[in-house]
Structure formats: C-alpha cells, structure tokens
Design a protein that fits this description.
The protein has about 400 residues and is an alpha+beta fold. It has helices at about 5-20, 165-170, 195-220, 350-380, and strands spanning about 30-35, 35-50, 55-65, 70-75, 80-85, 90, 100, 105-120, 130-140, 145-150, 155-160, 225-235, 240-245, 245-250, 255-260, 265-275, 280-295, 300-305, 305-315, 320-325, 335-345. The chain has four helices and 21 strands. Strand 9 and strand 10 form a beta hairpin. Helix 3 (about 195-220) runs antiparallel to helix 4 (about 350-380).
C-alpha cells in the first residue's frame, strides 16, 4: 500500500480522480431493506432534456444473493423504492394514455429520452455513459409504473414513494437526507381524501344548522310588546321627537322594531333608541325610508319601499321605552307612520353567517388539494391540464 509504484494504488487514485459525483449512498453500503440485507453495488445518473432544460436523477442498485436486485431512485430529494415487475402491464392508448397493472390504473405522466451521464460500480448489464432509453412514467400515488424501451425490448418497473429518512435509517447513513423540493410525480398528497371528508362533514353540519333554523323559526315567539301610530310634518325636524309609553320585555332575547309609513315620492328618517328604564342603557339605530313612483317612456316604475325593520341585539328582560326622532322633508307634508316592537324574533342573518363560516374549511382544503395536484402535473407532459382530478 505504501509503495508509490503499486499498480493497484495508481488505479485507485485514477478512479478517485474521475469520480466527479459522490453518491449520497456510498457504494458498498449495507442495510436492512424489506427484512433482508442488501448491499449498494451500483450507481448511475440519468438525464433527460425537456424544452431545452436538463433534469437528472440518481439510481442506486441494491443486491442480495437470495432476493436479487432492487433499486432506489432519487430526484431533488424525492425517493422511490423500485423493483422490476414480472407481469406485462396493459397500456390503453388515448389522448392521455393509462396503464393497468393488476387492479391498479395508472395515468400517463411523462415520456422522455433518458441518457446515462455517469455510472459507478456493478450492474447486471453492461452500462455505458451515453446509453439512452425511452422512459415513460405512469402515476397512481404513491406508486409509479415505469417502462424503459431500447429497440424492441421494454422493461417495466414499479416504484413506491418513500421518505428518505427510511433509507438513512436502514443504511445507517450520517446526517439527514436532503429535503424534498417541489412535488414529485407519485408523491402522496397530504390532502388525499380530506376534501371528501370535509364536504361530508359540511353537509352534515348544514343539515344540523337547517334543523336548528327550522326549530327556531317555529318556536320563535314574535310577541308584540308595543304598537303605536304617529305623524310627522315635513320640515319639522327636532320638534317631532318624543318617547313612547313603557313596555315590558318578559324574557331576554332579540328585539325587532317594524316601521311602516304612507310616504310617497319623498323620504322620512328615524333616529330610534331602545332605552332600559332600570339603568338607562340605550341601543341606538337610524333608518331612512323612501318611496318614489312615476311613469316614463318605459312604463310605470317604482323605487324604494314604504316600510323597514331593524333587529336589535339580544336584550335582558325588563321595562323599556323608545325614544323616536322622525324627520321628513317639506315636500313630504304629513307622513303617518307606525311603530311595532316584537320580542323573541329569530335572527336569520346569524344562520347565514354560520353557513358561510362552515363553507370556508372545505373550500380551502379543496383549493389546497387542487394546488398540490397542479404542482405535480406542472412537471408532466400535461402541464396545466390535470389539476382538477383529485
């Protein structure tokens, strides 16, 4: 070994100088894989060119004298456990071909010319730099069915997506595997099945919400606790302000104030305050009612309404009165209006808000799932065309 003229040493030195790529799993590494001891005996890097850009991945050949050969492939931090298949898959030609193997259907992902650009170690066939095969991949995550064709011969293999940490543990490799970059052809989606579950839960919750809504609509008391009719003279702002007679809200709950007027081709505004007689706390609201009508070349027309209603937040039981400040323009002359106060009125808007909130999670999960698939298929022969499939 210390003899500088030793031909073995010279050969090893020359080989080391030519080793421009260091495999992530060193040749000679041994590890327990699928319950058996396998040794890494070969390494090659393959490269394809798509739209003028080169993409390379690494292949590691594993060998056990009783179990035969297996492969580990790595592209940009994504690993696959690969074995050759004995049965011939059935390819269904179409605009987007599929392949069937066993009871599994695979969708065509990509076909490209793959060239060997670097090789080390031993292989069950003679491997040379420059060797080229037509490689076709069919995906059904986490599985990847691949074919390699050279002349009249085609070899099929099946890959399964695996976490690089499994390989590092199996072969006792130092450090940690490189982090995956992007989405790989057969990388399992973290959203698989989640959109379906979310939409199923959504429908169940909507049904429950509908039951609660119907029950509330039926059970809502809508008890009228006050009613009165008044008038306001147009242009008499401020002078028409008054307070109503006290009325009782027997139970805590929502309160609704109905306004009805006979206003025509004018408007009338109201500043209302529901005041608790015990503590003087007030709930203030403002409403404007306008109603116009006429006739033009298109016929009769109307705009606005002669009535309105306002629903107040829940209030405690007790004695209350309304402070009313109406206002109308001079052209309104005299407007007659009615006030009605009801308690325990169902609040439909709350159910609408809950429905929207329930709608958000399944929509977000569906969009994220579609986005993940979009990233996957962006690297395929069908970029931009398959993200809608779950």
């Amino acid at each position: 070994v210390i003899d500088a003229n030793n031909q073995t040493l010279i050969t090893l030195q020359k080989a080391q100088l030519r080793q421009r790529i260091a495999p992530k799993i060193p040749l000679g590494s041994r590890g327990t894989w699928h319950g058996h001891t396998f040794a890494v005996i070969g390494f090659q890097r393959r490269t394809t060119e798509v739209d003028g850009e080169e993409y390379s991945w690494d292949e590691y050949l594993l060998f056990n004298p009783y179990q035969g050969f297996r492969y580990l492939t790595e592209y940009d931090g994504h690993w696959n456990d690969v074995r050759t298949v004995r049965d011939l898959p059935i390819v269904h030609a179409a605009k987007r071909p599929t392949a069937t193997y066993g009871d599994q259907t695979f969708r065509h992902f990509q076909t490209a010319l793959a060239k060997t650009t670097y090789v080390l170690g031993e292989f069950p066939w003679r491997v040379r730099v420059g060797d080229a095969v037509e490689a076709s991949d069919y995906t059904a995550p986490p599985l990847l069915l691949s074919s390699e064709s050279t002349g009249g011969e085609t070899t099929w293999s099946m890959g399964k997506y695996i976490d690089g940490r499994e390989i590092w543990n199996a072969f006792k490799l130092p450090g940690a595997p490189p982090s995956p970059n992007g989405v790989y052809a057969n990388q399992p989606s973290p959203y698989t099945g989640r959109p379906t579950r979310y939409w199923t839960d959504f429908l169940g919750l909507v049904l429950l919400l509908a039951i609660v809504f119907v029950f509330r609509e039926i059970s809502g008391g809508r008890e009228e606790v006050f009613k009165g009719t008044y008038r306001v003279t147009g242009g008499a702002a401020g002078e028409a302000a008054f307070v109503t007679e006290p009325f009782t809200v027997s139970k805590a709950g929502t309160v609704e104030v109905d306004l009805s007027t006979d206003v025509q081709n004018a408007w009338v505004a109201f500043d209302l305050a529901l005041i608790d007689m015990d503590n003087g706390e007030a709930l203030n609201v403002s409403r404007e009612i306008s109603y116009y009508f006429g006739r033009d070349s298109d016929g009769n027309w109307t705009e606005g309404s002669t009535s309105d209603r306002v629903r107040l937040p829940p209030v405690p039981a007790g004695q209350y009165y309304l402070r009313v400040e109406p206002e109308a323009p001079p052209e309104a002359k005299v407007v007659t209006y009615g006030l009605a106060v009801r308690r325990d009125v169902p609040h439909e808007l709350v159910y609408g808000i809950v429905l929207v909130l329930l709608f958000i999670p399944p929509v977000l999960v569906t969009l994220r799932a579609a986005g993940f698939e979009g990233k996957r298929w962006k690297e395929s022969d069908y970029a931009g065309g398959s993200s809608s499939d779950d």
